[in-house]
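Lecture 7 notes: from sequence to structure.
We start with the chain below.
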Amino acid sequence: MNRFSGPAKFLHLLLPLALLTALVTARAPQPARLISGTVTDSTGQALPGVSVWVKGTRINTYTDGAGFFKLQVSASARTLVFSVVGFQKKEISFGRDSVVNVRLQADASALDKVVVTGYSTEMKREVNGVVSRMRPGLAASPPFATAPMRAMNNGDEDYDHRAENGFLETSRQALTTFSIDVDRA
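Predicted C-alpha cells for the same chain:
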C-alpha cells in the first residue's frame, strides 16, 4: 500500500521544493539602488573632486564640477563617507533616501599636513629626504633655462659599414628565404 495518497503525496514533494527555493532566495544578491546628490561647502559653493564611498566597501565615486555624484549601492548599504583635502571628513547615514545632499566644513589644519613634491602631493609623514619651503609668490627658475646648450652634431660621427645583400632573381637561380633581401625587392 502507498504510504502517501491523494493531496498528501503532493505535499511530500512540495515541502523539499519550498525549502530549496527559500535557500536559493536567501543567498541571492540584493538588488542595487542609485544614490545621488550634491556636495557643497559651508557657503553653498559646489565642491568638485570630493571622494564619495560606501562605508566598509570599495564602492566609490567622485563629484563632478558641479559637486554632483551618482553611486550604485547595495540594498544593505546605509552610510556614505565624503572626503576631500581641506575639508572635514563626513559620514552620512542615508537609510532609504535616494538623494543625499551634503555640506562639508572647511578644515584649515588638514592643509598643514600636505606637502607638494613637484607635480604630486604627499603627506608629511610619508616624505623622506630634504624638503624646502618657498615664500608665496616666489617662483623657481626652470631648470632648462639655466642649463648650457649642447654642441651641435658636425657630421663627424663614424658608423660601421654594413654590406647590403644584392638583388637575386628567382627565375635565374633557386633561392631560400634567407637569401632574399626583402627591403630591396
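Points to note: The beta strands are 32-40, 51-54, 60-62, 68-74, 79-83, 90-93, 102-103, 114-117, 120-123. The first strand starts at residue 32 and ends at 40.
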